[in-house]
Amino acid sequence: MKKIFALFIAFVAISCTNAQQKTAFSKEALSETLLSTDGNQVAFKDILKKYKGKTVVVEVWASWCGDCVKVMPKIKELQANNPNVAYVFISMDKAADKWKTGIEKHELKGQHFMANDQMKGVFGKAIDLDWIPRYIIIDKKGKIVLYRAIETDFDKINETLKKLK
């Protein structure tokens, strides 16, 4: 019985690990539009196209999220240590005014967008969003190299960016 249980645990661990690491975004995620700071709707695929040939860190966050706010100094440190990386922030705020106030308050440098229907909406589901802040790293070829990192994973984020230099 112990052997069967151990095999079951190993299978679940491998299945969960594989489910969390994707190398490309789904068609749903790519076609979903996000609100830009100038009030336009922009398809996620068009946002990514702008950074073709660059390493990109995508941070999914919200101004109301305590964990998001707590790690803002780490984001600034990450940006200072990786100036050649592009940073795209996608907010899960409910109101554009709160989102824009959060950008200014935390002095977030990068390109900013807001999901139209928050965490449980189409975009959130399409990227398997279950926690914020969430970090996704895309390499220069457009391949996702780190699909799911959270605020406790900055060692992994730093290590991934170091490998991509």
Show the helix and strand layout.
Layout: H1 2-20, H2 27-31, E1 33-36, E2 41-43, H3 44-49, E3 56-61, H4 66-70, H5 72-81, E4 86-91, H6 96-106, E5 111-115, H7 122-126, E6 134-138, E7 144-150, H8 154-164
Parallel strand pairs: 3-4, 4-5
Antiparallel strand pairs: 1-2, 1-5, 3-6, 6-7
Key phrases:
165 residues, alpha/beta, Glutaredoxin, 7-stranded mixed β-sheet, 8 helices, 7 strands, Redoxin
Walk me through the structure.
It comes from Flavobacterium urumqiense. Residues 23-165 form the Thioredoxin domain. Keywords: Cytochrome c-type biogenesis, Disulfide bond, Redox-active center, Signal. It is found in: Cell envelope. The chain is an alpha/beta fold and 165 residues long. The protein has one domain (24-164): Glutaredoxin (3-Layer(aba) Sandwich), CATH 3.40.30.10. It is built from eight helices and seven strands. It has helices at residues 2-20, 27-31, 44-49, 66-70, 72-81, 96-106, 122-126, 154-164, and strands spanning 33-36, 41-43, 56-61, 86-91, 111-115, 134-138, 144-150. β1 (33-36) and β2 (41-43) form a beta hairpin. It is globular, with a radius of gyration of 17 Å.
Short overview:
The chain is α/β, with parallel strands linked by helices.
Low-confidence residue ranges: 3-19
Shape: globular
Going by helix content, strand content and strand pairing, the class is alpha/beta
Number of strands: 7
CATH topology: Glutaredoxin
Estimated radius of gyration: 17 Å
Separation, N- and C-terminal Cα atoms: 48 Å
Average pLDDT: 90
Question: How many structurally independent domains?
Answer: 1
Under the CATH scheme, the architecture is 3-Layer(aba) Sandwich
Domain Thioredoxin: 23-165
GO molecular function: oxidoreductase activity
GO biological process, one term: cytochrome complex assembly
Signal peptide: 1-19
